[in-house]
Amino acid sequence: MPDGLVDREAEQLGDLDSYEGTLGGLTRREFINYCAGVAAFLGLPSAMGVKIAEAASAAARRPSVIWLSGSACTGCTETLLRTNHPSLDTLILEQISLEYCETLSVGSGHQAENWKKKAMQENHGKYLMVLDGAVSTKDNGIYAKVAGQTVLEMVQEVAAGAAAVVSIGSCGSWGGWPSTGVNPTGCKGLPEVLKGKPVVTIPGCPPNPYNFLSTVLHFVTFGKLPELDDKGRPKFAYGRLIHENCERRPHFDAGRFAMEFGDYGHRQGYCLYKLGCKGPETYANCPSIGFNDVGQGTWPVGTGHPCFGCTEQGVGFSKPIHELASLKSVAPPNSYPDVRSEKGNGASPGAVAAVAGITGAAIGAGAVIASRLGKQDKADESPQSTGKTGA
Ligand code: SF4
Ligand code: SF4
User: Fold this and answer.
1) How far is the centre of ligand 1, averaged over its atoms, from the C-alpha of 82 (Å)?
2) Over the stretch 269-303, which tens digit does the pLDDT of each residue have?
3) DSSP readout, 324-371?
4) CA of 181 to the centre of ligand 1 (A)
5) Do β-strands 145-146 and 149-150 pair in parallel, antiparallel, or remain unpaired?
6) 62-237: CATH class
7) What is the pTM of this model?
8) Which of 256, 268, 271, 278 for a ligand 1 pocket mutation test, highest count of atoms within 8 Å of Cβ?
């Protein structure tokens, strides 16, 4: 963001010194920059960054959060704690009032359980409930208990008094890996268990922590949750297919595919569709925001591994990696390169031109594809397209 814009927004905030000390060492500029980034992330005008900063710094509006855990690997909580842009643990611990969290609470046993009950009574109808992990439901949920209470009973009790319910991670969202295969403990996602109560889902294995934080900041700022899709996922984060924003997409459109790990196409960064990438049927913003605060390119496909569709029920943990993804939003289908052919990875210029005209307009990448077309002759002479794949 240009400094001028930051300064103008900073002026609107008045006494910015009040942010010092409330944000665990973040400078005013860093904080406003961060909030402007969150506004952009949510698809809001940059000026809304000021409103988010105001709301997030108003201690009186800090929402109480009761964070429960079901059947999971604790990766969701771990990913939340390993961000530093800014330090998410600092921000989240200071922007919300975290009343109960089995992984992070200092207290334990009766002390922690009594505090949870007190927080539920004092903040009835106002607190945010968060769940990571699936809910074990078989035999009335006896296979997962905390403090003598099944997780099944616990989520129903806590959700009853919550202003909003968020399930973070694929396990909490739709069952995730605990629910795959024979599923001996009858694990389910929270939306299946809390019938009739809206549940915001932030799927991912692990989920991107900024999708969670932005959802919470939206709630803090506007007193309501962001727009959701039919699976309860915030549209700002799960509104587009991975395939639409993938940096390897021009290779897909031009018919250039890695055929084996380590072959010429894989080393050249070609599309991973034929290695089982589920990006064409998976909704998430992984290519846009990346992981580990390193920036774009730092995500599974960026580092050479096919997306396995962890945010998508029925794809992640369900569809084998060797099974090809279903192609969504492709029209007309016969205009695509022949991705099922084992021979001749290069598409004909005519087929690529049709794809450029149709899908290029749809994804706003016509210029990229057009430049690819200009290089088609050279691409046709590459080792892969001449059969010298190095595999
Ligand atoms: Fe990217 Fe996968 Fe789509 Fe290829 S199939 S463009 S690697 S998301
Ligand atoms: Fe999940 Fe695919 Fe994103 Fe990896 S790239 S985190 S498998 S949605």
Assistant:
1) 27
2) 999 999 999 999 999 999 988 887 666 678 999 99
3) PPPPPS-SSGGGS--TT-SS--SPPHHHHHHHHHHHHHHHT-HHHHHH
4) 27
5) antiparallel
6) alpha beta
7) 0.73
8) 271
